[in-house]
Amino acid sequence: MTDTFDFVVVGAGSGGCTVAGRLSEDAATSVALLDAGGPCDNWVVTTPGALVLMVAGNVNNWAFNTVPQKGLNGRIGYQPRGKGLGGSSAINAMVYIRGHRSDYDHWASLGNTGWAYADVLPYFKRSENNADFDGKYHGKDGPLFVNKLRSGNPVQQIFLQAAQEGQFRIREDFNTDDHEGLGIYQVTQRNGERWSAARAYVHPHMGKRANLRVVTQAHATRILFDGRRAVGVEYRQGKELMQLRARREVILAAGAFQSPQLLMLSGIGDAAALHGHGIASVHHLPGVGQNLQDHPDFIFGYMSDSPYFSGISLKGMPRLIRAILQYRRERRGPLTSNFAECGGFLKTRPDLDIPDIQLHFGMAMVDDHGRKRHNGTGFSCHVCLLRPKSRGSVALASLDAMQAPLIDPNFLGHEDDLETMVAGFKTTRRLMETPALRALQKKDMFTANVRSDDDIRAVLRERVDTVYHPVGTCKMGTDAMAVVDPALKVHGLEALRVVDASIMPTLIGGNTNAPTIMIGEKAADMIRAEMR
Asked: Which residues form the Glucose-methanol-choline oxidoreductase N-terminal domain (predicted)?
C-alpha cells in the first residue's frame, strides 16, 4: 500500500527543509520530506571546523564534477553539494548573506511579481534569529540562528587593519540596503555550533509532529503524473523501489543540479532532447536545465608562520588539541571557525552602482577545494564575480537517476567575465599587499610571478572554480524559457512546484543559503494562502 500525504517534498536542503517545516506547522496538513542522504545530526555537521572533512570528500556531499570547461583550459571543475538533511547548509561555510536589494528588484522587473526586495525582506526577517543586529532589516524570533563568530581569532582585527590601510570601507552589517565594504561575517551558528536549515526547521519536530514524515536514504527517481497533474514520487531506498502519493502537491527542492535532472527524467524538459534519451515527453519545457549561473572564484593562497592559521603541521598538533578541549568545554575557539571568517563586497570600478566582487578571507591555505594538501599553515583570500554574464546548463548523462547529471557552469564563457575577474584580482591583490597582511605572508603559493594582465588571465584560467553558489536551472519567469511562474508552479502542469535555488532567474550578489531559505518561507506562505 502506497502512503499518501498532502505534500511530498523532494530534497531536504535549505528550501525543502524550510517549506516542509513551515507547512507541517498546521497539524491538519501532512508532509513527507525525502532526501537521498542521512540525518546530518552528528558532530561532523554540528562542529563548524569539521566542514573540512565534508567539502573535500564524499561525507554528506554529492561531490559532483563538471564537464570540461572551455574557459578554464578544459579543466574539470568540482561541485560539492550537501547530501542529507540540511543539504548544502550542512556542509557550507555558514556565511549569512542575503545579496543586494537590487538583485530582488531586478527579479521583479523581469515579470516576477511579488519578488522585489520589499516583498522578500519580511521572509528573511521571519526566518532569522539574529543575536547581534535588530531594526528594520533583522528578525529576532525566527528558527535560523545568526551570530557573530566565536573563534576569537586575532586575524580578524589584522584583516580590518589591512582594510583601513588599503582605504577600503569597513562594514559591520552586510545585510542592510548597502553592503559595500570589508568586515567580519555573521554565521548561521548557535552557541558555536552549525545551525543548518534542518536544525532550524526539521530536526526539532521529527518524532513530535505526527503529520511530518522524514525519509532519509531515499533517492527520488521520477515524479509520478496522472495526465498533467503530479500525483506522487517514486524513490529508491536501498534496493527497493517505493512510492509516496501527494493529495495536494509535489514540491521539488533537490537543488540547482538535481531538480532539473528529476524533471527531465520525469518527461519534463526539451522534448527533442528527452526523445534523444528515449524519454517520452510529458510536457515540453525547453528551459529545464538551462540558465545555470554560478560565481566564478579565484583563491590567493599564502603559507604563514602565524600561530592563528590552520594547516598540516606537527607544530599545529598542540593547538588542535587545545582547540578540541576548548570547544568541548565552552563551544568557543578555532573549532567554531567557518574558515571564511572575513570578507566583504567591493567595486572594481568607482562608477559602479553596486559591488561586483565578493571576498572570503580564509583561515587556512586552500588549494583545489582542500583536495590538494600542503604541509604547513597558511591563509587564503577568495575573490568571486557576483553577477557573471556566462550561462551554463545541466543535462542528462543517462536514464539512471542514481547517476550524476552533466554539469556545465560555462565558467568565463563570456569574455566580460574574464576581464571583470582581472579587475577583481587587482583589487584583491591591493588588499593582500597592505603592510598588515604582508607581515603574515611567508610564501605566495600561486601568484608570486603574476605581473601583467596576460599573466592574470592565464592564472585565472588555470585556477578559477566555483565558490559553491549554483542557481537558475528551473528559472522563475513568464518568458518561453521560464520553468516556474512567480508562484513557483511549473508552467503547464498541475500540483508541481520547485522551491530551491534553481528558481532564481539571475544569480544574487552574495552567498545563496539565506536567499534559498527565504524562498522556502515565501513558498510556504503562498501555498498556505491557496489552501485557505
From this structure: 82-105, 255-269
Residues of the chain with pLDDT under 70: 1, 313-316
Q: Are 96 and 214 contacting, i.e. CB atoms less than 8 angstroms apart?
A: no
For residue 324, give the C-alpha cell. Answer: 578540541
What does the pLDDT look like over 185-198, one tens digit per residue? Answer: 999 999 999 999 99
Range(s) of the domain holding residue 357: 150-184+296-385+413-463
Task: Name the one residue in this structure whose C-alpha cell is 561525507.
Answer: 59
**Maximum alpha-carbon separation in the chain:** 69
Distance, CA of 21 to CA of 19 (rounded, Å): 6
From 374, 414, 469, 491, active-site residue? 469
Q: What are phi and psi of 478, to 5 degrees?
A: -125, 5
Measured CA distances, 522 to 126, 203, 207, 517 (Å) = 10, 21, 25, 9
219 catalytically annotated: no
Name the 3-class secondary structure at 108: helix
User: Helices marked H in 43-185 — which ranges?
Assistant: 43-46, 52-55, 101-109, 117-127, 155-165
- Write down the pLDDT at residue 317: 78
* Helical pair 415-432 and 453-463, crossing angle rounded to 10 deg: 100
Dihedral sign, Cα of residue 226, residue 227, residue 233, residue 234: positive
CB crowding 166-184: b at 16 or more within 10 Å, else e: bebeebebbbeeebbbbbb
In a domain, 394, yes or no: no
CATH number at residue 322: 3.30.410.40
Q: Is 412 helix (H, G, I), strand (E, B) or coil?
A: coil
Contact 519, 112 (CB under 8 A): no
Calpha distance 169→179 (Å, rounded): 10
